Amino acid sequence: MATRRNPTARQVRLGTELRRLRDAAGLKATEAATLLGASSVQMSQIESGIAGVSEERVRRLAANYACTDDELIGALVGMATDRTQGWWEAYRGVLPASFLNLSELDHHATFRHDVAVIHIPGLLQTESYARALFSYMHPELPEGELEPRVSHRMKRKVVIEGAAPIPYKTVIHEAALRIRVTGRVDYRAQLARVLEMSEADHVTVRVIPFELDSFAGAGSTMVHLGGAVPRLDTVVRDAPHGTAFVDSEAQLEHFRKLFRRVEEVSLAPEKSRDVIHQLARES
Prior knowledge:
By secondary structure, this protein is an alpha/beta fold. 50% of the residues lie in helices and 11% in strands. It is elongated, with a radius of gyration of 21 Å. The N and C termini lie far apart (59 Å).
């Protein structure tokens, strides 16, 4: 059984879910290893994502754990047997692993929900807007990393612009729409980009206006990616130490409620477009 030096977030998640099933069954890792005909070291490697696991072993573990959720088992089998080498692999060794992990999660997502308070969501950014953001980072990016980051962000748009786009909802605070990250001409182009995508059938853009009373959700920025089953959803948040991938059920439910909350207080899509149109006229 070959091991991986740097498992992806999706590979780690598979191991995490297998461990959670084992814990729910009240079994120790050594007991599960015996049932599987493996060593305790192999079991540890599977549950940490360092080692792969076959479909037969996933199904045997599920049976030994008395898991009867066929949809979940099928989803875990899909994760175990997937051999996708996506476009993001071209950036491996060039960009931080979190960039590639997010692209892989995007690729497999069944939907995506964003809440953006300060900046336009990445999937709606123009090239000039993204370049301006990356150029402003401190400390400055190493030479040769700026353009790959911009290129990677532009290619990520395939998830909502490609041949099989996923449903996409975003709630954007008016602050993010008003901050001129770029010059006036590029700023207008950025607003036009948001408006253009808001007209797509699979895209919903809502705006939280400045005039909204009692909005204390400035820290609500997040990305919520739908899994094959709700249990396999993932929330992505920026943290002081880097990108954080949240997958515990309690936290996932917290962020589901958070998205519903900001969605409820935001303007309807039609009124949101009116706000963006007005900002474009004023610029």
